[in-house]
Specification:
Number of helices: 27
Helix content: 55-70%
Structural class: alpha/beta
Shape: elongated
Distance between the termini: 49 Å
Number of strands: 11
Strand order of the largest sheet: 5-11-10-6-9-7-8
Radius of gyration: 49 Å
Largest sheet: 7 strands, parallel
Strand content: 5-15%
């Protein structure tokens, strides 16, 4: 397998490595172990909640319901059918009006008794309206025209009285607004009625005077057949329609001006002023056109597609993958656009309504009034010209007929004015009927605090506090709690779990459990490791064994594994490639001039040199190549082509090649060795190694293209308990010195960082 293939496999292993699901499972296991902490936190939360519930001030609520109905339009619209959809669209306006300062000021004025102002006690008068708003809630029921008014107070009677005061103040404001509109229309119609009445009396007197002096002319010939008379009649009818249009335009201008001044809804005037053709244009002006809705729908489709794609890619990539980050960023941007759009549209609608739509509508109705007046003036001018011709042509008879026509027209218009005046109801609300359907009542019990809500909050907050405490403790304690946690964090197979072992008496092979006690439970762990490696899916003939830190037991583990392979009838070569601090050489008492470093520096052929530097300690099928004399440039020697030749030669002789390397984070030697073998086995002590250090060690192998076969959890508690007690001090430093010998197995595993000189070493060995 070449380097490129190993790097590709390494990238795949990173993708299938730790993810959010594994992290969640790991945290749940920690919570299970720390369950007493969670229970204590919830109990404390329950105690605090109980104290708060007992001492909290009781709140009482009173509710009233108001119905808004559409009866008919304004005075110039005639009898229109009910249009509740229009009312539903503007219900937010009525809801906002209910909590306006004017309504609340009117309600406060009605709170004349001291006990009714209990919620305002100790608050400056200038802040009374704000205080009422805090306790006042106005809501609408979807697809209805009902307003629910709720107020929460310290006393049930106060709550009921405040709700009634707010509702009464609101109704008074509505009557004042709409009554003012009706009065303006009534004044306009009354002025027109007085003018028409005076004109009628004048024309009737003029007609009577002419008739008295006309005599026989009243029974003249067929006058209606003259085209001037017919034209006069048509112009008279047209003038009636023009005068009606002018009057309607005047009333519409006045109504729009009044609506803009009072802040009332102007949508009812848009249709009247612009017609159906301009509806889409007006909707676009208010920021709610069809194009804008299509844009929002398109964004929602994009959000759904991105979320679906994120869910699919999250199963393929890690949380920090560029594609995942890009999708998450795009989802946040789209969601932010959709969340902010209603506020933007509302603000734009309000701004357009106040700054653009209102003035445009007013200009439109004024233009309509100008056109109607100009049309009426043109008709009047033409009528007077034709009328003069008719009078001159037919004399008094034509004049009499024209006067009769004028009187007929004036009487019809006068009658219409009288009918409209009769329809105006000063107490009405110009097409809107507001009435109380459910009056406020005294609350039978407090609405706050609720025992169910309090219990739920205590449980939730207590659980959150407990989980937060457990999480903080977990962050502060950065060690693995169990081999299962270790396996899920690294995303690597657990090859074996080796229990904590007591050191054996003796030296050399006598300290190797699989050799000294082949039938013991500890030996079975190494045979399990051997089986896991043998049945691995990848090639495992050439393996390097390393660890994260000194003292993890990788030398002892490798020695036992080598004996286990030899016992399975596999011809095994054990190479001590730790040229800096050779623990395997010291463990097996093979210190001397022969070994790996001698082969690497030798000029003899590799085969001849290897045979001279290999030892057999009496174990069948097991040969050992010690480290040899300590070189000054171990990394350069291991990176040379001669080391590759050694491995190539060993493949022709041995079934299994095992290489002991320094800790992976200490020096670069393990990465150098790992590039010429099939894979690496990392020995880890879950009770000692820190998460960050272990993750960094495995990632360093993956980054250099070294295939990690799996991990070995060493020093597991003999009782099977995975919740380790940590009495070990933490410090990282490989600490290679001149000391090349250790007295026994414990020293080889610990690899003490303190270097001693050769005299002290000789003294210890002699002892």
């Amino acid at each position: 397998m070449n380097i490129e293939e190993r790097q590709a496999e390494s990238a795949d292993s990173v993708t299938s490595g730790p993810n959010l699901l594994n992290e969640a499972v790991r945290f749940l296991r920690i919570v299970r172990r720390k369950l007493p902490t969670l229970i204590v936190s919830m109990v404390i939360g329950g105690v605090i909640g109980s104290v708060w519930y007992v001492t909290a001030t009781r709140k009482y609520e009173s509710v009233s319901e108001i119905m808004v109905l559409k009866t008919e339009g304004n005075v110039l619209e005639g009898n229109n059918s009910s249009n509740q959809r229009t009312i539903q669209d503007i219900m937010p306006t009525f809801q906002k009006l209910m909590t306006s300062d004017n309504v609340l000021i009117g309600a406060i004025a009605k709170l004349d008794k001291k006990e009714h102002r209990i919620d305002l006690k100790g608050i400056p008068r200038a802040k009374w309206t704000n205080e009422l708003k805090k306790n006042l809630t106005v809501s609408t029921t979807r697809l209805t025209t009902l307003l629910q008014v709720r107020y929460v107070s310290k006393k049930p009677e106060t709550a009921m009285f405040v709700v009634n005061a707010v509702v009464e103040s609101y109704l008074e404001m509505m009557r004042k607004i709409h009554n003012g509109d009706s009065r303006d229309n009534l004044d306009l119609l009354s002025q027109e009625e007085a003018r028409l009445n005076a004109l009628l009396q004048s024309k009737e007197a003029e007609l009577l005077s002419i008739q008295q002096g006309a005599g026989i002319l009243l029974h003249g010939g067929d006058k209606s057949t003259h085209f001037l008379i017919q034209q006069t009649i048509k112009l008279s009818d047209a003038m009636v329609e023009a005068q009606r249009a002018t009057l309607e335009a005047q009333a519409l201008v006045l109504s729009v001006q009044n609506a803009l001044a009072t802040g009332a809804d102007i949508q009812s005037f848009i249709q009247q002023a612009a017609g159906d053709v301009s509806r889409e244009f007006m909707m676009r002006e208010m920021g709610i056109g069809s194009n804008d809705a299509n844009a929002a729908a398109k964004r929602e489709d994009e959000l759904l597609n991105d979320q679906t794609e994120l869910e699919v890619r999250s199963k393929m990539y890690g949380p920090n993958h560029p594609q995942i980050l890009q999708l998450q960023n795009r989802i946040r941007q789209t969601q932010k656009w959709l969340d902010e759009r209603p506020q933007i549209v509302a603000a734009a609608t309000k701004q357009v309504r106040e700054k653009e739509l209102g003035p445009k509508l007013l200009a439109m109705v004024k233009q309509r009034l100008f056109q109607a007046s100009a049309h009426e003036a043109a008709l009047r001018q033409e009528f007077e010209m034709v009328n003069a011709q008719a009078v001159g042509l037919n004399g008094q008879m034509a004049q009499i007929e024209i006067l009769e026509m004028n009187l007929k027209r004036l009487r019809a218009f006068y009658q219409e004015i009288l009918e409209k005046i009769a329809k105006i109801d000063i107490g009405a609300n110009s097409g809107l009927k507001v009435s109380v359907t459910t009056p406020a009542k005294t609350s039978l019990g407090p609405v706050a605090p609720k025992i169910s809500t309090t219990v739920m909050l205590c449980i939730v907050l207590g659980a959150l506090a407990g989980l937060g405490t457990i999480y903080i403790l977990d962050v502060l304690d950065d060690r693995f709690r169990s081999p299962d946690e270790l396996q899920s964090q690294l995303g690597l197979p657990m090859l074996a779990m080796i229990r904590e072992m007591e050191p054996l008496a003796g030296t050399g092979l006598d300290t190797i459990v699989t050799f000294a006690r082949p039938s013991s439970l500890e030996s079975e762990s190494f045979r399990t490791l051997r089986s896991s490696i043998t049945f691995s899916k990848m090639e495992t003939r050439r393996l390097v064994v390393t660890s994260t830190e000194p003292g993890d037991g990788k030398t002892t583990t490798l020695a036992n594994l080598a004996v286990a392979f030899a016992q399975s009838k596999k011809k095994t070569l054990l190479i001590d490639a730790d040229l800096r601090r050779p623990g395997m050489t010291q463990l097996l008492e093979l210190k001397g001039p022969r070994g790996l470093s001698q082969i690497l520096r030798d000029i003899k052929p590799v085969e001849e040199s290897c045979l001279e530097n290999i030892f057999n300690l009496g174990v069948e099928n097991l040969d050992v190549m010690p480290s040899g004399p300590r070189p000054t440039n171990p990394a350069e020697l291991l990176g040379s082509g001669r080391f590759n030749d050694i491995i190539a030669w060993a493949e022709t002789i041995y079934d299994q090649i095992l290489i002991d390397a320094p800790p992976v984070l200490a020096v670069t030697d393990p990465a150098i060795v790992g590039r010429v073998v099939d894979g690496a086995v990392v020995v880890i002590r879950p009770d000692k190694n820190r998460r960050k250090m272990v993750l960094r060690a495995v990632d360093s192998y993956r980054a250099t293209g070294v295939q990690v076969v799996g991990i070995v959890a060493n020093h597991i508690a003999g009782d099977g308990n995975s919740d380790y007690g940590y009495g070990y001090g933490y410090g990282y430093g490989y600490g290679y010195g001149h000391d090349e010998t250790l007295p026994n197995q414990d020293a080889a595993d610990a690899q003490d960082d303190a270097a001693t000189d050769h005299d002290e070493v000789d003294t210890r060995l002699a002892a």
